[in-house]
Write a structure and sequence with these properties.
Radius of gyration: 16 Å
Number of helices: 3
Largest sheet: 6 strands, mixed
Number of strands: 8
Distance between the termini: 43 Å
Oligomer: single chain
Strand order of the largest sheet: 4-3-8-7-6-5
Length: 162
């Protein structure tokens, strides 16, 4: 089923992103999720989730694609210039854990959000459960790193960003 696959550059074969995950397919699933969220297209993002997907996002609990679409529409209407970087953390057969950072602004104030997500997938590779814990920090425009395409892998050694 092509909708469950991700073309991995022109020189790589199409790889099915369904459980059981290998480290390679888990990392590709993380890249696909990052690309979808950076599109800021709620409908596109929602297709990655089961019809009855359950989310915990900060202090909100969502159930199903319609609530996910509504949530993302409201999020991106408020959070301008949103840009996200996800980092693979670990995986098991049908679960993937990531850390992430994203930057956005509300009016003229910039923020960087940090967090962790735990994902559980069905056999078709759709996300059934998403648990996200996120913290936001006010930053100045000069402190933006994701938006400036800074290599965030240099921060994976434990170096802290403000």
């Amino acid at each position: 089923m092509l909708s469950r696959c991700l073309p991995r550059l022109a020189t790589h074969p199409v790889v099915a992103l369904v459980p059981p995950f290998t480290e390679q397919t888990a990392r590709l699933k993380v890249e696909a999720a990052e690309a979808a969220w950076n599109s800021r297209d709620p409908e596109r993002c929602a297709l990655a989730y089961t019809e009855d997907s359950c989310w915990r996002n900060r202090d909100q609990f969502l159930k199903g694609r319609a609530e996910i679409v509504r949530f993302l529409q409201e999020k991106w209407a408020k959070e301008k210039d949103y840009v996200l970087k996800k980092h693979y953390f670990c995986h098991s057969d049908n679960k993937i854990a990531v850390t992430f950072q994203y930057e956005y602004r509300i009016k003229e104030q910039w923020y960087r959000a940090y967090g962790n997500e735990h994902w559980t997938f069905d056999a078709e590779g759709k996300m059934r459960i998403r648990n996200a814990s996120t913290n936001d920090v006010k930053i100045s425009e000069d402190e933006r790193v994701i938006s400036r395409q800074v290599d965030l892998h240099k921060f994976s050694d434990g170096t802290c960003l403000r």
